[in-house]
Specification:
- Helices cover about 35% and strands about 25% of the residues.
- It has 10 helices and 12 strands.
- The chain has a 6-stranded mixed beta sheet with strand order 6-9-10-3-11-12, sandwiched between helices. A 4-stranded antiparallel beta sheet has the order 2-1-4-5.
- The chain is globular and about 60 Å long.
- The structure holds adenosine-5'-triphosphate and magnesium ion.
- Adenosine-5'-triphosphate (ATP) binds next to α1 and α10.
- Adenosine-5'-triphosphate binds next to α1 and α10.
Length: about 290
């Protein structure tokens, strides 16, 4: 159902800021309504992470065409920070570490920033304990509750952000941030990579526990198996910067069985072309 709470992406074209004439995304149309889970699958280098970054306003990308609207706002005109205060959230494919900053402080700052709301309510100043922001007590209770939901050890909160974290721990931290921030639009980039099967299940259970009629989810994944746990409303296949096919859950099963070959061919793309596109970019240039 379409409403102003539906994220509407129309003809979105995106290029790297360093090479604005080389478009990665060449016209993406997508609508994600509250309560829906959209899965995006696609070969390496097809532009999935670029889509996630462009939606969040990453400075390494420029928008070369199209529009994104949500909750009555022109999302593309907003800063990344404002998008986050509006209720958008991105779980990174490759989260960075911040030695010296504890998980608890990090998440509390993020939550306080989010609590300021889109128009930065002047009565709320996260740096002033008397002016709103969440109290330490309430914050601790919230963290405890969310960590229990994600089956995380409490000691996790005092560790430094992603410092020495295993792949699975990094992904859990992304999930914990999401759980505490309670976004209305969550973009999860390959949250299953680097997870063993038990951790995958825990993350998926976490996402499922967070699903609610007000939350739209865009989950980017390579693996059908994640979709055994997080059941998508729609599956999209992204290739060469376009959505070449959309369908139900069975599309993911079909991909697992036959690979991308048949779908690429049906869309008039050769598998070789996709590989070339992936190889021809200089990975050192990609800002992660
Ligand atoms: N900042 C950048 N500068 C230059 N090229 C980039 C940049 N970001 C992405 N690219 C290129 O754009 C293409 C798409 O990259 P992207 O990371 O979006 O793919 P992906 O679908 O997420 O791949 P994967 O499945 O491996 O995660 C790749 O060829 C990549 O090298
Ligand atoms: Mg990616």
């Amino acid at each position: 159902m379409s409403s102003d709470k539906t994220l509407v992406i129309r003809g979105l074209r995106v290029a790297p800021s360093a090479k604005p004439d080389r478009e990665i995304l060449k016209g993406i149309d997508l609508e994600v309504s509250p309560g829906e889970v959209h899965a995006i699958m696609g070969p390496n280098g097809s532009g999935k992470t670029t889509l996630a970054y462009a939606l969040m306003g990453h400075p390494a990308y420029v928008i070369t065409g199209g529009s994104v609207t949500w909750k009555g706002h022109d999302v593309l005109a907003m800063s990344a920070d404002k998008r986050s205060r509006l209720g958008m959230f991105l779980a990174f494919q490759y989260p960075t570490s911040i030695p010296g900053l504890s998980v608890a402080s990090f998440i509390r700052s993020a939550l306080n920033a989010r609590l300021q709301g889109i128009d930065r309510n002047p009565d709320v100043d996260p740096t002033d304990p008397l002016k709103g922001g969440i109290s330490m007590r309430d914050f601790r209770a919230k963290m405890r509750q969310k960590m229990a939901m994600l089956k995380m050890d409490e000691g996790f909160a005092s560790r430094y952000v992603n410092d020495g974290f295993s792949g699975g721990e990094k992904k859990r931290l992304e999930m914990l941030q999401m759980a505490v921030l309670e976004p209305e639009m969550a973009i999860l980039d390959e949250t299953d990579s680097g997870l063993d099967i038990d951790a995958l299940r825990i993350v998926a259970e976490g996402v499922n526990a967070m699903l609610n009629p007000n939350l739209g989810v865009l989950v980017i994944t390579h693996y059908q198996r994640l979709l055994d746990y997080i059941v998508p409303s729609v599956v999209h296949v992204l290739a060469a910067g376009r959505i070449i096919k959309s369908g139900g859950r069975e599309l993911a099963l079909e991909l697992e069985k036959d690979g991308y070959g048949p779908i690429l061919e049906a869309a008039g793309l050769s598998a070789a072309l996709i590989d070339d596109a992936a190889l021809d970019a200089d990975p050192a240039e990609a800002v992660r």
